[in-house]
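Quick review question:
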């Protein structure tokens, strides 16, 4: 009976248990659980080998397939059946690394330099400086689209005599954070 565990250990050298797979993948996929790994096996996303005792053992290829499948699910909202087909096609071609995710329907994230931000929002440099100095906007090398919208709102408020310094008390009272 003592020979069985030794035989299982030598046969599974280089293979990982569910716990070890979770330790590797949860930093990237925090919602991953052992139950989800078992479910992904049932759905055909991964097919780990089994020890004589029935324990799942995952190879490096299994982990890469899981990582790719979970990324497609998280970032592109693909159903598992489509993910399984894409992974199978890539594996059949021997080019799992060449598997490209489908084009995203989400627009690319646009970042604005200071001059682009001012132009896009129709704001003057002094308004932006005032917004930064009062903490309504955080100074950055490049600004996200949300800052363009915020600065446009500040331009509209400025037309009515409301300056960024007037908003500081509102922001503090609401517990909001600057962008």
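Suggested answer, residue by residue:
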């Amino acid at each position: 009976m003592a020979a069985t565990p030794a035989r299982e250990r030598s046969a599974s050298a280089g293979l990982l248990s569910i716990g070890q797979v979770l330790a590797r993948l949860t930093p990237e996929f925090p919602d991953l659980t052992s139950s989800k790994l078992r479910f992904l096996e049932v759905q055909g996303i991964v097919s780990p080998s089994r020890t004589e005792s029935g324990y799942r053992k995952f190879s490096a290829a299994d982990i890469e397939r899981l990582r790719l499948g979970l990324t497609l699910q998280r970032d592109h909202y693909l159903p598992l059946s489509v993910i399984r087909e894409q992974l199978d096609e890539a594996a059949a071609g021997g080019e799992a690394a060449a598997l490209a995710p489908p084009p995203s329907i989400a627009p690319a994230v646009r970042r604005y330099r200071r001059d682009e931000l001012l132009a896009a929002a129709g704001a003057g440099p002094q308004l932006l400086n005032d917004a930064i100095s009062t903490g309504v906007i955080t100074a950055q090398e490049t600004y996200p689209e949300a800052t363009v919208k915020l600065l446009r709102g500040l331009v509209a408020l400025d037309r009515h005599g409301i300056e960024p310094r007037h908003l500081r008390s509102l922001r503090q009272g609401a517990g909001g954070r600057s962008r």
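Why it works: The longest strand covers residues 49-50. Residues 60-76 form the longest helix (17 residues).
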